[in-house]
Amino acid sequence: MWYASCLKNCCDAVDRTFCDAINIPYSIFCGSYMNSPPEKKEKFSRIIWGWLPSLFLCFVVAAFVAFGYVSIKDKADRLVAEKAAAGQAPPPPVNVVTQTMVPIKMMDLIDLPSMMQPWDDLTVSCETPGRITSIHVKEGDAVTEGEILVEIEKSDYEIRVRSITARQELAEINYNRLKNLSGQAAVTQARIDEARTVLKELNASLDEAKLKLRRCTIRVPMAGVVNSLPAIKGELLDHGDPVAEILKIDRLKVEVAIPEQDVAAVRDVEQCKVTIAALGNREITGKKIFLSSKPASFAMVYTLRLAIPNPSGDILPGMFARTQVIKRVFDNSYGVPLFSVITQDNKKFVYLVKNETARKQPVTTGIMEGWKIRIPSGLNRGDRVIIVGHRNVEDGQSVRVVRNVTDPEDV
């Protein structure tokens, strides 16, 4: 049979190693077959040929799994070796930027909002009732003291002056006549006294009439700018009616609300820097003229008033400003950026560069000026403080200084 011939050739080709791999004894696989009758040989050959593909597939899978296991184990061993080698090698230097410590002047100041106000704000009112006959200015005009603003109809007041003048002249003649006859029996002292009293009353009435006549011409009480002019020609004014508003702006004042905790420090301040945003952040020095002795409101703030020169008149009342009040000046101080100070366990420190190595340095902190903080202790002249890259270093780590500055604003 061709089954027998093929199986014999297969047995001759298969060695004992293959039989061990598929877990079939060599004696069973070939020896038993060679000693079996022809019928059994044919049956056995059919069984073997039916199992052979499955056995071959199992062999292939087993070989693939063994090869994969060996590859993965080799890769794992290689990674462990690389990690061990990397742990033994020193980390590369960290790039940092440092600031060399030099003594500077630092100021403890407060920056508060404020607003420009006119030095004087005066409302001119009517003192003599009457109808407006003429207006000599307009809103926005610069006026000088004594200049005419408005004129009121004078006819009634001129008539009264002439009337009282005539009576006053007659009373004066009568008094002089009686005075010349004072030594005669026909003239008593009582008549002389009465004539003198009448004359005095008429003199007073005449002065009052002339005063009212003068008040028909309303004049500028102080030099300044006409801010508003509610008066209208032909309008009938009563006593106390507003005529114009005059602002004195050749110098201005700034009122700053000082918090209660800063009043003691501000008491000795003589001048402050005022920054006006509307004029391109122009800086002007204001001189202190007043500090209130009690709070201006329930907010417990005290009023600090500053005088601001304004000869050109370009600073206008109502402009927003910020006022810097310097409470204290520290000379020969060391300052670093606030973000370069690290806080850990309620302790503060910075990193210094010494021999190209980062070293932790404990420090104390003080007042802040802008984004710089004062270091009262812990630093010395010439120390190089890491201000960029300090979050990526540890004590004793190698660093590479890529830039060094003396002022953090140069970064």
Short descriptors:
411 residues, alpha+beta, conserved putative lor/sdh protein from methanococcus maripaludis s2 fold, OB fold (Dihydrolipoamide Acetyltransferase, E2P), 4 domains, 4-stranded antiparallel β-sheet, 7 helices, elongated
Task: Provide an overview of this structure.
The chain is of the alpha+beta class and 411 residues long. The protein folds into four domains: 2-86; 94-105 and 332-410, conserved putative lor/sdh protein from methanococcus maripaludis s2 fold (Beta Barrel); 126-237, OB fold (Dihydrolipoamide Acetyltransferase, E2P), CATH 2.40.50; 248-330, Efflux pump adaptor protein, beta barrel domain (Elongation Factor Tu (Ef-tu), domain 3, Beta Barrel). It is 33% helix and 36% strand. It has seven helices and 21 strands. It has helices spanning 2-13, 16-21, 26-34, 38-88, 155-180, 189-214, 263-266, and strands spanning 94-100, 104-125, 130-135, 142-143, 148-152, 217-219, 224-228, 236-237, 242-259, 271-276, 282-291, 301-309, 320-333, 335-337, 342-344, 347-354, 357-362, 368-369, 372-374, 384-388, 399-405. The chain has a six-stranded antiparallel beta barrel with strand order 2-9-12-11-10-13. Helix 5 (155-180) packs antiparallel against helix 6. It is elongated. It starts with a helix and ends in a 6-residue tail after the last strand.
